[in-house]
């Protein structure tokens, strides 16, 4: 009598997500362009700007202390929004997404892998930024648990909003070749008007008002409340850190991004039907 060999049990949801996340991280690390422009760019910028502007912006606040907030925020924007909005159209163009839809793997596993990759790269990128700024440019790290908690929730809400918006925006580019041309200008404009490269309140009022619509401005503002003294809050546009509003706007963008992901995401190109 021939023994019946039982098939191994199917992996659970957690294992599926972690396995896909590991695959995404390996693919990311093997792409020199992705590593350089996503992880190294904020570090390069902090080195350049901190070396050039070594003085204070006023009130005893060093330029590096102010600038690090924008670099952390733009790093999270880069890995969450920019990289996904360029990477996903490339995978769609190569037929990767179409093939995935033809496998038994649930669609959510693909997105779980992207989220895990974004979180791991975002944490590593932020840690490198803080280490370089502390070791070489005398950055003062948050001194209280409350500030670290603010740092955590602002970063988490910010990267969540950027990730969801990146997945949603990936449907805008028609081809892999057009994706960088579509996505990069959006990311650059947001950085210039959101207080990443300049003191936010030094920007023209119309730019400040446009920036206030989008999450990057609020990510920078929330992070400034972590790295700058409380006395510096009066220099903000509203003369306050507005942390409640920071949470509200970032949370709203998470909801908007999720709705757009559900309603607009494309697994195939037009030529695939």
TrEMBL record:
Q: Could you tell me where this protein is found in the cell?
A: Cell membrane; Membrane
| One record GO biological process | response to antibiotic
Signal sequence extent: none
Q: Where are the transmembrane segments?
A: 34-54, 66-86, 107-136, 148-169, 181-200, 246-265
- Name the membrane topology term: Multi-pass membrane protein
PROSITE patterns on file: ABC_TM2
Keyword Membrane in record: yes
The alphabetical list of record keywords is: Antibiotic resistance, Cell membrane, Membrane, Transmembrane, Transmembrane helix, Transport
Domain ABC transmembrane type-2, chain residue ranges per copy = 33-268
What Gene Ontology terms describe where this protein resides (cellular component)?
ATP-binding cassette (ABC) transporter complex
An example Gene Ontology molecular-function term: ABC-type transporter activity
The superkingdom listed in its UniProt entry is Bacteria
The UniProt similarity line reads: Belongs to the ABC-2 integral membrane protein family.
What PANTHER family would the database entry show?
DOXORUBICIN RESISTANCE ABC TRANSPORTER PERMEASE PROTEIN DRRC-RELATED, TRANSPORT PERMEASE PROTEIN
Protein's UniProt name: Transport permease protein
Record the organism.
Asanoa ferruginea
